[in-house]
Amino acid sequence: MNIVVFGAGGRAGRQAVAEAHRRGHQVTAVVRDPSGHKDLTDVRVVAGDVTDTASIEHAAVAHDAAISAAADLSVPPHEFFTASSRALTTGLAGAGVHRLVVVGLASVMPGASGALLMDEPGYPNEYRSFSLGHAAGLDELRRCDLDWAYVAPAGDFDHEGTRTGRYRIAEHGDPASRITYADLAIALIDEIEAPRHHRAAVSVREA
């Protein structure tokens, strides 16, 4: 398949690129400045802006599916994630790409109580604005016509962990659960190759 990955320079994006390439797919890695990502080898690297519809459409033409792992901490989270969701849904539709898999955030998934994890008692709120931004971006996806899947770690990332080759779908967010970036990438590419979740948000955690 031809897969375009937006936010390919970040930790999740790089692993998605690597996993797609490992499986023999043709990958276009979209970053803001290709000159800063010369280590992205064996894939096509292009400049792009995930908040700009025309840029997305240009990068995505002739691709079968897209992944977004993009974030920009220099922009207010609500502004960035709503703008990127709108631009992705419009730009990908214009390019004829109908499958989008988005790297999500645990805190906007339901917790054990049924409430959003970020609203459960005791959940740390120092990054609440980032969580609210992600939630707003997810709401934008729910209003679009694309076949999308929002794939979030059930708790947080195991930043130092290595690839195990396994993951499992979680019933709800759990602050104690972890998943490596490499194993999250497996879930992302699985949703491209054999989609199981359609217009839905799902949690994944270590197996």
Automatic annotation (TrEMBL):
Highest rank taxon of the organism: Bacteria
Domain NAD(P)-binding: 7-194
SUPFAM superfamilies reported in the protein's UniProt record: NAD(P)-binding Rossmann-fold domains (SSF51735)
Gene3D superfamilies from the UniProt entry: NAD(P)-binding Rossmann-like Domain
Chain ranges passing through the membrane: none
One Pfam family matching this protein: NAD_binding_10
Name assigned to this protein: NAD(P)H-binding protein
Species of the source: Streptomyces hyaluromycini
Upper taxonomic lineage: Bacteria, Bacillati, Actinomycetota, Actinomycetes, Kitasatosporales
